[in-house]
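Input record (one chain):
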Amino acid sequence: MKKIGILHGKERSFPEAFVERVNSKNIEGIIAEPVKIDKVMQGEASDYAVIIDRISQDVPFYRAYLKNAALCGTAVINNPFWWSADEKFFNNCLATKIDVPVPKTVILPSHDLPDDTSEGSFANLAYPLDWDGIFKYVGFPAYMKPFAGGGWKNVYKLESMDDFFEKHKETGQLVMLLQEEIVFEEYYRCYCIGGKYVRIMPYEPRNPHHLRYVAGFTPTKERLQQMEEIVLRINQYLGYDFNTVELALRDGVPYAIDFCNPAPDADIKSVGEENFAWVVETAANFAIEKALEHDAKKDNLTWGEYIKKSSGKKKLY
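The corresponding structure, as predicted from the sequence alone:
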């Protein structure tokens, strides 16, 4: 019997529907359930052929459990080693190398010194930074947000240099991105599962949270194909099996705004019934596919093109 587990926190609608959908397919030798952990011993395999991870970004104990499980052959969705290393600034940098339009973005050192450091720890950092060059590059209005954060937390819209310096004081030890504002005509949130299945959803981030998927954007067939190609390129390079990409269209050009969401919102109350049904069905099918392919003696993780080409010392782009 090959078990598919889902590791989750307080969310309920997607994990419960996912388990029910896998089991309702009655695939011989396949069963799904919420992950159960009563002990974690080094180098000992978990009970699961496949685990979908929805919570380890917030729980370091779970991240360590998943790395051990992956080492012992579990196919973890998403790869916990890459997820541990990834962050939003790197994603933007990578996008510039794979022909994906992104907003002009810079990374900023934290306003407050990190714990256990002093001014001497930053001997290589110019002070002051070249603020004129930074502001000229990004422009105003601009957005400031954590370089590795998830969700709409600690995000600021800035109207001027003075506004920036005032708001930056509030960010403490957070390392922030300063990013060009993309004034968009249309906006889309796109699920990508398995690096091959894409769901493009009209999305209006300026609406209240429960109404953000209520948007009247109607892209052409050509635009849908263009956006799907961008979504696939991003996820295949990053190696994410489950992710969302947000695309903002300005003057007909899709800009990737946020594309590091490896535990994306999948609650029926926010994404709506049709999108929810798609993500449950597609995630169930992909997890079953991974379970049927599973070989406990092999590495069953997905590694992105960036890592594969780097390790093979091939031309990256």
